[in-house]
């Protein structure tokens, strides 16, 4: 049986690390260790691949490089400079380019590459990030956990040794690793993980039910790739937009231009200053003007259709990924439950 030692730093999402041999503590025979183990969420234990690590590192290094660029730009406006910040930017840029090259090499060997590489407008680096977020969804489960997918795959238990922040062993447990795409057993779960299910709003003080970075990357893919290229996903967006326009207007709903500025719910007035965050009169936080009954703003309508296009892409990526790994793939909901015959398949959307 394989044995894996996982530190608390790895539990916080850092790269996988191996440690030297050390005396392990049985959870069954040590009540104090068992309590400490329970305090560590099993969902945070990781066995991420180097591909996932590179994807995370790229975002971190890019953030450093962009921060240096912005800071130096402000200094230039005041006739100043910072040699340390310039060197940090140059080194971060060099590392960012190295990671980009390595990710490009890795992504071309990915089982989904033969599909998405034939879609107009998709870059290797963008897909490396998307797939990196999906693979990063993998986690450990306790042996016999009901949440382990019943997909016919044989998963060997791994002995996981837990370490505290000081690298002292506090316990050992049998765990089963499940990859990210394996956890997403249905297309609906893939959409939910990407934050594409209606109602998944970000609320203050509450934990997100989706991967925010994946959602952001997918929206950028839509705006800067699909909608800027005349590919089949752009054609789907146009077709769906016309379909929804006829459907909504047929129900008497009007599509009107989005009002400029923001809205104060306390004063019940519209604030023309678009960049304002608080009402100049009552100082309460401003929000978007709510849609009256029977009216949908054009901006809302556009985002609705764009989300439909992204959802279609996520469903297609999910199906291609699972099929390539020999995992079961269910029919789309409209085909399985509603009896629809005309279903847009993943390979129907390739452009070249």
Short description:
Helix content is 45%, strand content 10%. With 352 residues, the protein is of the alpha/beta class. It has a four-stranded mixed β-sheet with strand order 1-3-4-2.
Morphology: globular
Please tally the β strands and state the result: 8
Series of H and E elements: EHHHHHHEEEHHHHEEEEHH
What portion of residues belong to β-strands? Answer: 5-15%
Largest sheet: 4 strands, mixed
**What is the count of DSSP helices, taking H or I runs of 4+ residues?**
12
By helix and strand content, what is the structural category? alpha/beta
Query: Over the alpha carbons, how many angstroms does the gyration radius reach?
Result: 24 Å
Distance linking N and C termini = 46 Å
Strand line-up of the largest beta sheet: 1-3-4-2
Report the uncertain regions: 1-44
Mean pLDDT: 82
Instruction: Please give the domain count.
Output: 3
Q: Helical amount among residues, as a percent range? A: 40-55%
């Amino acid at each position: 049986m394989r044995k894996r030692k996982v530190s608390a730093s790895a539990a916080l999402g850092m790269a996988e690390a191996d440690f030297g041999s050390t005396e392990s503590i049985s959870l069954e025979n040590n009540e104090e260790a068992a309590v400490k183990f329970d305090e560590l969420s099993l969902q945070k234990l990781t066995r991420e691949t180097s591909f996932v690590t590179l994807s995370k590192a790229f975002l971190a290094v890019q953030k450093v490089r962009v921060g240096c660029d912005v800071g130096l730009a402000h200094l230039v406006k005041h006739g100043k400079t910072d040699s340390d910040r310039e060197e940090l930017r140059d080194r971060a840029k060099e590392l960012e380019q190295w990671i980009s090259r390595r990710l490009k090499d890795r992504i071309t060997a990915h089982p989904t590459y033969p599909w998405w590489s034939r879609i107009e407008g998709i870059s290797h680096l963008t897909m490396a990030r998307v797939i990196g977020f999906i693979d990063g969804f993998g986690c450990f489960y306790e042996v016999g956990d009901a949440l382990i997918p019943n997909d016919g795959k044989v998963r060997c238990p791994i002995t996981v040794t837990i370490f505290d922040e000081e690298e002292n062993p506090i316990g050992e447990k049998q765990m089963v690793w499940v990859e990210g795409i394996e956890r997403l057993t249905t297309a609906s779960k893939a959409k939910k993980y990407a934050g594409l299910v209606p109602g998944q709003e970000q609320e203050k003080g509450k934990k997100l039910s989706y991967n925010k970075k994946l959602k952001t990357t997918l929206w950028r893919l839509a705006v800067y790739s699909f909608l800027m290229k005349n590919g089949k996903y752009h054609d789907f967006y146009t077709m769906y937009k016309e379909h929804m326009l006829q459907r909504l207007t047929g129900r008497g709903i009007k599509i009107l231009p989005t009002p400029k500025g923001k809205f104060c719910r306390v004063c019940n007035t519209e604030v023309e200053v678009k960049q304002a965050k608080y009402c100049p009169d009552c100082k309460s936080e401003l929000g978007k003007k709510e849609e009256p009954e029977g009216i949908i703003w054009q901006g809302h309508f556009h985002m609705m259709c764009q989300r439909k296009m992204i959802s279609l892409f996520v469903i297609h990526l999910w199906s291609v990924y699972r099929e390539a790994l020999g995992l079961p793939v269910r029919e789309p909901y409209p085909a399985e439950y509603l009896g629809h015959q005309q279903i847009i398949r993943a390979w129907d959307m390739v452009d070249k």
